[in-house]
Amino acid sequence: MSKTLSAEALRSVVAGIIEAVGSSRAEAEQVAANLVLANLSGHDSHGVGMVPRYVDAVAEGGLVPNTAVRVELDAGAMLALDGQGGYGQIVGVQAMELGIARAQELGSCILSLSHAHHLGRIGHFAEMATAQGLVSMHFVNVLSRPVVAPWGGGDGRFGTNPCCIGVPLAGAEPFVLDYATSRVAQGKMRVAHNKGERVPAGYLIDERGAPTDDPGVVVVPQSGGLFGALMTFGEHKGYGMAVACELLGGALTGSGTWHRTPDAARSVYNGMLTVLIDPARLGTRERFEQEASAFVDWLKQSPPGAGFDGVQLAGEPERTARRARERDGIVIDDATWGEIVAAGAQAGVAVQSV
After folding, report:
1. Antiparallel, parallel or unpaired: β 108-117 and 78-82
2. For residues 30 and 340, what is the distance between their CA atoms, to the nearest angstrom?
3. Who contacts 270 (Cβ-Cβ below 8 Å, separation ≥6)?
4. pLDDT of 244-296, one tens digit each?
5. How is domain 71-182+233-301 classified at the CATH fold level?
6. pTM (2 d.p.)
């Protein structure tokens, strides 16, 4: 079973809960808007279903409301920032605003962000950059219970470690490639588990290292209190990218890498290395725009393959989902809604009537 809510109603519910656990109204509304935008974009894994975890993380002290990014180093085209455990939806945006301004001033910026609580959908930050005509590249690691197995391994050793690349396209919507280096995002397994669904072969191994189609193995403890693990996409290639994101997003930023025994903490920390480039300042803007448009046109001329309506670019499915869900509402399964209601009760907010 499920229920369908408008984006406006969901934003109101989420903002009320986030405010109740300590955030200012402005912060709560920004966090809520970001989470609901993820749902609108078709990424329920990064949407309002995260609210219960955020409420728990605030209670633990790992997520600190009303916290701003701190500048650790300002070296012109290089910025090192510390998120100080603040909401990723807040400190991530603050970091990007600083980096975008610097790239517009100097032509490029290398930006490191450490110790941010869950940044959410990284594509949001690429969209911020491309809206200003900038190319952006993002490498992110995840410090939480390790849920992804290394290629050739039999248990979780690191997080879903997303990579994102945004490229503005002249006269068209931007190219926004945003993906977890795991076969699927951990949050998608939570959603599937809550819906009682099974998943395709090749996504998961169970707590014994054997293949399984049960998403619950990475959501709830299995025999002996152990968890299963997600597999990386593309076998050894996705594994290599996951390690690169850990080294760049975690080690290089100073945010930290995962190399300890898992615990039950609910906080999720991200480190992010971002590279921003202004094509106009690089001196290739005219040629860049021409070549990018020509290549996209060339791709779109490919006849539809079997089972497809045509070729799409990264970012198009999200924009299509936003139009549909803004019109038709956002579907929340009953298990996820029950968790949100419980999180509201924990925060002292009654949301059952929505």
Report:
1. parallel
2. 18
3. 88, 113, 116, 117, 118, 119, 140, 141, 142, 143, 249, 255
4. 999 999 999 999 999 998 888 899 999 999 999 999 999 999 999 999 999 99
5. Ribosomal Protein S8; Chain: A, domain 1 (3.30.1370)
6. 0.93
